[in-house]
Write a structure and sequence with these properties.
133 residues; globular
Length: 133
């Protein structure tokens, strides 16, 4: 994986970032957890381009990022573990799921991809298409 910049949230009132502001994060602030999550997701999906890093940001800023954060927060409060372990656990779960045929039809993400990878790629492609306009 090539090192690329972590993009800060563009929507702190929604998505992953907003969900974290209501979480009892004992050891880190939301911005630090955002950076940690972005880095761990990039590693997990093998992100090797700037577009994928933008896809990670846009995923985390989205409704899907809010659901991912709910998973992370549930791990922190339910398992009494730290942020890094909670994020890694959520990543493993999301990578274990697969994009369904119905999601493929609705969103254009190829069926069978790991769920997290598929959604990050979806947001990366959407951002690239928007920038091309």
């Amino acid at each position: 994986m090539t090192a690329h910049a972590i993009h800060p949230s563009r929507n702190e009132d929604y998505g992953f970032f907003q969900t974290l502001t209501h979480c009892p994060l004992r050891e880190r602030r939301s911005a630090e957890v955002w950076t940690l999550a972005s880095t761990l997701i990039a590693t997990a999906i093998g992100a090797d381009s700037e577009d994928e890093m933008i896809g990670i940001r846009d995923f985390l800023d989205s409704r899907m990022g809010r659901h991912f954060a709910d998973d992370v927060v549930g791990n922190i409060t339910g398992c009494n573990i730290d942020s890094e372990a909670a994020i890694k656990s959520a990543i493993r779960r999301w990578q274990g799921w697969r994009i369904s045929r119905s999601t493929a039809r609705e969103e254009g993400i190829p069926a069978g991809l790991p769920y997290l990878t598929g959604w990050v790629q979806h947001f990366a492609i959407t951002a690239a298409m928007t920038d091309a306009d």
